[in-house]
Design brief:
- Helices cover 45% and strands 15% of the residues.
- The strands form three sheets. It has a seven-stranded antiparallel sheet with strand order 4-3-2-1-5-6-7, covered by helices on one side. Strands 8-11 form a two-stranded antiparallel ribbon.
- The protein folds into three domains: 184 residues, no CATH class; 132 residues, no CATH class; 31 residues, no CATH class.
- By secondary structure, the chain is an alpha+beta fold.
- The longest helix is centred in the first third of the chain and has 30 residues.
- This is PepSY domain-containing protein.
- Keywords: Membrane, Transmembrane, Transmembrane helix.
- It comes from Pedobacter lusitanus.
- InterPro entries: PepSY-ass_TM.
């Protein structure tokens, strides 16, 4: 069997086998691209009237939230831009519960409380995200997603091999780059699968490869090894010095915040509040609104406030990070299309929408070839040149025959 036939066979059966998974992951990803923008329309508590004064300190926001947190401990505090509300968050990953309290960062007034439980009502975008990550099947679904994305990468590569024109003459180029909208449905469907798939190939390949980072540790480490020229990915967790027999002082949060809040270009900040004796105080200072990659990331000993230094791509100032470390920090923003703001989000949205259509158009191409009933055969009328004797001299006459028949496509 030739390479071409093997490639076509793989594309067909891998596509049929993974079609439903690809559709769900693509359509949920497509919806989630503009999650933040859509939320802003129906969640007015995300915004406040900007004022020409400094935000309140973290401990002041936490103090205002205590009545709503009860016995729960805050795990993080997040500041946005001047027109955005701040949040005090309490997250318990083991129990699957969370409380997010939105506050006015200038007055500490509570604007809204968002409580989530594992068995409680699932908010729309949380439902969409669960489908994108786990097919709503928990850990089993997460493993299926990982396999499905790997298969999709193979489908993208095999698809571009099938698309590649045999000859770069005008007629073949037109078939490869243009959709013949005025043709029959069967032809239009085929063009949508082949031509549209080509135009989003690179975008979908990028989204798939960045998504695999969250599915497989071996892939994440291998990708970093390749981009860094052979360096190992350090994933050690920064820790505080528990031998000091000291107690955490909440005022340390305020001192560190006051120091980092003056960072030039500060577009927001997330503070990780230590929950255990060995936890550090984490700070992420965002340098570009709407993205996660361009940020300075710090870890401080919760007792001494000294920086905890680790050779990790996710720690340190952005401008001092190496190219491989910057690429790793960009992974999420590349995956969701936020890397360059609205233009790349639109591209990610359209690519994901086309990706969701590929299993459908591909199935219709296969079904049309395999199972569609052939139309009845019709005679093909041909004209035959014969000699016929008449009263006049011999003359040539055209006689219609219906001896040849063939199926009508």
């Amino acid at each position: 069997m030739s390479f071409k036939k093997i490639n076509a066979w793989l594309h067909l059966w891998l596509g049929l086998g993974s079609g439903l998974i690809v559709f769900i992951v693509s359509i949920t990803g497509c919806i989630y691209v503009f999650e933040k923008e859509i939320r802003s329309f129906y969640q007015p508590w995300q915004f406040v009237q900007p004022q020409e004064k400094a935000f309140l300190l973290p401990t002041q926001l936490i103090s205002s939230s205590k009545s709503q947190l009860g016995k729960l401990k805050p795990t993080s505090v997040r500041y946005g831009q001047k027109s955005e509300s701040a949040t005090v968050n309490s997250l318990n990953r083991k129990k699957g519960t969370s409380v997010v309290i939105y506050l006015n960062p200038y007055t500490a007034e509570i604007l809204h409380i968002d409580r989530k439980t594992k068995k409680g009502d699932v908010e729309f975008f949380r439902f969409i995200l669960n489908g994108h990550r786990t097919l709503w099947m928990g850990e089993t679904g997460s493993k299926i997603i990982g396999i499905g994305v790997l298969v999709f990468v193979v489908l993208l590569i095999s698809g571009i091999v099938l698309w590649w024109p045999k000859k770069w003459i005008k007629s073949i180029r037109d078939q490869s780059f243009k959709i013949k909208w005025n043709a029959r449905f069967k032809r239009v469907n085929y063009d949508l699968h082949k031509v549209a798939g080509f135009y989003v190939f690179l975008v979908l390949l990028l989204i798939s490869l960045t998504g695999l980072v969250y599915s497989y540790k071996w892939y994440s480490k291998s990708l970093y090894w390749v981009t860094s020229g052979g360096k190992s990915l350090t994933q050690a967790k920064p820790l505080s010095d528990t031998t000091l027999n000291a107690e955490f002082a909440p005022a340390n949060l305020d001192k560190l915040y006051s120091k980092l809040a003056t960072t030039p270009g500060n577009a927001g900040m997330t503070i990780a509040v230590p929950a255990k004796a060995s936890d550090v105080i984490g700070f992420v200072v965002y340098l570009k609104a709407g993205t996660l990659y361009k940020a300075d990331r710090y870890a401080f000993d919760q007792y001494t406030m000294k920086p905890v230094i680790l050779n990790s791509p996710l720690l340190g100032k952005y401008e001092e990070a190496s190219i491989p470390d910057k690429i790793r920090r960009m992974n999420y923003d590349l995956h969701v299309g936020a890397i360059m703001g609205l233009p790349t989000k639109i591209i990610a949205f359209l690519a994901s929408l086309i990706s969701a259509s590929l299993p459908i158009t591909g199935f219709l191409v296969w079904y049309g070839k395999k199972f569609k009933k052939k139309k009845g055969k019709q005679p093909l009328v041909q004209e035959k040149m014969v000699l016929k004797k008449t009263n006049s001299p011999w003359e040539v006459k055209k006689v219609s025959t219906a001896a040849i028949q063939e199926p009508v496509a």
